[in-house]
Design brief:
The protein is an alpha+beta fold and about 475 residues long. The chain contains 23 helices and 8 strands. It starts with 17 loop residues before the first helix and ends with a helix.
Length: about 475
């Protein structure tokens, strides 16, 4: 029999307290998520209140609010969002002022848009019901995924509509705006949109290509299409380009157009010839401890209100957490700007290799803290808005013994692709050879990865056939 034995073993292990775990989670939240979390805490903690003071938290680290917001507004104005026009109504106050809500155009859903068109058509009652039934069955993409026989069974007519009648109603809906709506497949959607081409010759050529030669269209086989259709290369180039710009999801243009906006945490600008990072006042929560309630509680501690004591402790911790969070974000951002000022000055080609450890050592925090701080945090610069993680990349050796970054190499590849001949586009292997000629030794598969990151199609899909190239 085997004898049982007890063994004692001593181990040292670091564990995070629940509060520290919560702090770590809050640190990696985006500013919007952090604001929502803080708002929830404000709503249930009586010792916290909104700071109505003019100066935000850590005001010494922030530029004046008017100046910072003016910089942010100028950056935003470079790419304004187009809002559908509508005639605003004056407010009911009679002062001639318009509220913000009255100036925003209401979203119109696809179904509302289609019903509006059907309502102005002089349709018989039975056909109006059938077309309305089809409209209600469309999905958000604008497709009809339900069989016509199933829809016919839903009708409450004494005599159930037959398939030809349902197909006729479908044709009516397919003739509405947007072109391509109520299709039952992607191919049918494209064919419906092809039918909207005004030029008859282009329309028939496009219909032939989509219906019979869709594979050659996908592979940009212009010479093959020319032999099969008898059209010239120039005609095919124009028609194929027209087909590629058709919308495979016509329903997406209407309603539920949720747009995700990025609110930058840091604003970078040049002040007296030096690049400077400041916090964006718009993302700094103005929260403070309610000193009146805290003092009252301290006077009556003998009442043993354990729940209130926990709220007070949480309130003090929350205020410290807000200050520490944005102080850390600013310190990390300033360290990044000091290391990557050449990128701000000259663009992607001047990006330097940078690791988390370098910033962590400069700021005096752990690498994991830098990783969390740069997660979902954004920096707005005169050249665009970037996630803080964008500025970190490993060093890649060059032939001269120096180092460059993947960002810089992507910039070189982008320049090479922008200058390529449309008739003879550069293959990934050729791009790798040209990079090697510049002292940048990059594998072909790495070039492929960077090209895909730039959302540039393969060489076969980029090739444009010209009469001169075809003759050769």
């Amino acid at each position: 029999m085997s004898a049982q034995a007890l063994r004692f073993e001593h181990r040292q292990q670091q564990t995070l307290t629940p509060r520290l775990q919560h702090a770590v989670r809050l640190l990696q939240l985006s500013s919007m998520d952090f604001a929502q979390e803080l708002q929830h805490t404000l709503g249930r903690n009586p010792f916290l209140e909104v700071d109505e003071a003019e100066e935000p938290i850590a005001a010494e680290a922030v530029a004046t609010e008017a100046e910072a917001m003016a910089e942010l507004t100028a950056e935003t104005d470079r790419d304004p969002m187009a809002i559908p026009g509508s005639t605003p109504r004056t407010s009911g106050s009679g002062d001639g002022e318009m509220s913000a809500m009255e100036m925003v155009a209401a979203d119109v859903s696809l179904r509302q848009h289609l019903h509006t068109q059907l309502n102005i058509m002089n349709l018989p009652e039975r056909e109006r019901v059938l077309t309305g039934l089809i409209v209600e069955a469309l999905d958000d993409d604008g497709y009809l995924r339900v069989g016509l026989d199933e829809l016919a069974a839903l009708c409450e007519f004494e005599d159930e509509p037959e398939l030809p009648e349902m197909e006729a109603a479908l044709k009516v809906v397919q003739g509405l705006d947007p072109c391509g709506v109520a299709a039952r497949s992607v191919g049918e959607c494209v064919l419906l949109q092809v039918g909207c081409i005004e030029d008859e010759q282009e329309r028939e050529l496009a219909r032939t290509i989509v219906a019979k030669h869709i594979e050659r269209l996908a592979h940009r086989d212009i010479p093959g299409l020319a032999k099969l259709t008898g059209a010239t290369v120039a005609q095919l180039e124009a028609v194929c380009e027209r087909i590629r710009h058709l919308d495979p999801r016509p329903g997406w243009r209407f309603g539920n157009s949720h747009i995700s906006y990025v609110t930058p945490d840091v604003i970078v600008k040049k002040v007296r010839g030096t690049w400077t990072a400041v916090l964006n006042p718009a993302v700094i929560p103005r929260v403070k401890l309610n000193e009146v309630y805290a003092e009252l509680f301290q006077r009556h501690r003998e009442s043993q209100h354990s729940e209130l004591a926990a709220h007070l402790q949480e309130a003090r911790w929350t205020v410290r957490n807000v200050e520490q969070r944005f102080s850390t974000i600013l310190s990390v951002a300033q360290a990044i700007v000091r290391r990557q000022w050449k990128f701000l000055e000259y663009g992607a080609l001047a990006m330097k290799p940078l690791g988390l450890r370098e910033i962590a050592e400069e700021v005096g925090v752990h690498e994991s803290t830098v990783s969390r701080v740069t997660n979902n945090k954004y920096m707005v610069t005169p050249s665009g808005t970037y996630e803080l993680k964008y500025f970190f990349s490993r060093a890649m050796p060059t032939a001269s013994g120096g180092a460059c970054t993947g960002t810089a190499i992507r910039g070189v590849i982008q320049d090479l692709l922008a200058a390529e001949d449309a008739a003879e586009p550069l293959s990934d292997a050729e791009i790798a050879r040209r990079l090697a000629a510049q002292g940048l030794h990059v594998a072909r598969r790495t070039v492929t990865k960077y090209r895909q990151m730039l959302r540039v199609p393969s060489v076969g899909r980029r090739r444009r056939h010209t009469p001169a190239a075809e003759a050769v």
